[in-house]
Design a protein that fits this description.
The chain has about 375 residues and is of the alpha/beta class. It has 16 helices and eleven strands. It has three domains: about 70 residues, DNA polymerase, domain 1 (Orthogonal Bundle); about 180 residues, Rossmann fold (3-Layer(aba) Sandwich); about 60 residues, Winged helix-like DNA-binding domain superfamily/Winged helix DNA-binding domain (Arc Repressor Mutant, subunit A, Orthogonal Bundle), CATH 1.10.10.10.
């Protein structure tokens, strides 16, 4: 080895070396005590005693300077305001550590540290107005509830999900299938910068790595792996979102699919997922019921974005004000009674009650009625 590496640098080098998969890298770290510097200090015989490591991999590790320019990478990172987060770092998404083949580290632009649970919203690049509107609405609602909305910055559904989260001042993370310095599609440059400022951009690939058939599935496993649940809004049966859904199922994550028109190919993948056991999604309350956040651990709802149409008195939306006023006299009310009293349709009453409960304004009783909190 031509130079002494810090622990951080050792992680960075290992992550960038070619033809060494994350399973092998994690196995090396585990077998050699967890310190990445040890991998560069032991001899080839010790490296090759680790399952899956042969002469080609041990030679790549021992001759790493021929494969990776560490100084140039560090210069690029500093110029691009990018950090590399090893899997042992507190800022590394916690759930991602649990999958079979987690990246040993992630490049990150932006300061969001994934302290709140994440929800993935993914779908097709070729989408309908219905799909875009649904993804944007779901992105906004989950972000308002305090979730970080995760997607892949692609055209179509991914873009709509990110935009929905940002529209309410929420957090969103984009996981890209290339080096973090490559913005694709190029028309999402402004969105990329907004996510960087208000959330995070993530990649496991070194600077300059172009997206290809291998990198996109690797990206999709990260999207699913870091999230409590994955929601597929629109996709055909061969779309990339189906790969994300497959990873979610294999990783033991919750999987939801939004139904669409039976004559639209853009919904055929969602319908296939529902037939195969994914939960049909009609709204955010379907996900919350599965996650059991209403009765247990839940993220902290964010206030309505200042100046937005949703921002109302005491941080309540117009619908929430209307429903909240029903409880000011101490009444115990069921959802159907609230609908009759306010004139709001049932499909708006249910999520409004959920939001008021998350904001600690009301509480649900054992008999299904609601009352104001003292």
């Amino acid at each position: 080895m031509s130079r002494e590496l810090t622990e951080q640098q050792a992680f960075l080098v290992l992550n960038a070396l070619p033809n060494i998969g994350p399973i092998t890298l994690n196995r090396l770290l585990e077998d050699l005590g967890g310190d990445p510097r040890e991998i560069f200090q032991v001899g080839t015989r010790r490296l090759e005693s680790v399952r899956g490591v042969g002469p080609a991999i041990s030679a790549t590790i021992s001759q790493w300077t021929e494969h990776f320019n560490l100084e140039r990478e560090e210069e690029r990172m500093a110029k691009a305001r990018t950090v590399f987060i090893p899997s042992r770092d507190a800022g590394y998404p916690k759930l991602l550590k649990e999958i079979n083949d987690p990246p040993i580290g992630l490049y990150r632009k932006g300061t969001y540290d994934f302290t709140h649970p994440c929800i993935a919203i993914v779908g097709s690049r070729r989408t309908t107005l219905y799909g875009q509107a649904t993804a944007k609405k779901l992105g906004a609602e989950f972000a308002r509830l305090g979730f970080c909305v995760v997607s892949g910055l692609a055209r179509g559904i991914d873009t709509a999900a990110h935009e929905g989260a940002l529209s309410v001042g929420g957090k969103t993370a984009a996981v890209v299938g290339s080096g973090i310095d490559i913005i694709y599609p190029p028309e999402n440059l402004a969105l990329y910068r907004q996510i960087e400022n208000e959330g995070a951009i993530l990649s496991e690939f070194p600077f300059g790595r172009r997206a290809d058939r291998q990198s996109f599935p690797m990206r999709n496993r990260v999207v699913a792996g870091m999230c409590e649940a994955t929601i597929v809004v629109e996709t055909d049966v061969s779309g990339g979102a189906m790969i994300t859904a497959k990873f979610a199922g294999e990783q033991g994550r919750l999987l939801f699919a939004v139904p669409g028109r039976i004559d639209q190919s853009t919904s055929s993948g969602c319908h296939q997922l529902i037939r195969d056991g994914a939960t049909l999604l009609t709204g955010v309350d379907d996900v919350l019921s599965e996650l059991n956040y209403l009765d247990g651990l839940r993220p902290q709802p964010i206030p309505a974005k200042p100046g937005s149409p949703e921002a109302g008195e005491d941080g309540l939306t117009p619908d929430e004000v209307i429903v909240w006023n029903c409880f000011r006299g101490g009444e115990l009310l069921a959802p159907d009674a609230i609908a009759m009293q306010t004139g709001l349709p049932a499909e708006r009453v249910s999520p409004t009650l959920m939001m008021l409960e998350l904001k600690r304004r009301i509480a649900k009783r054992a008999d299904g009625t609601f009352e104001a909190r003292l």
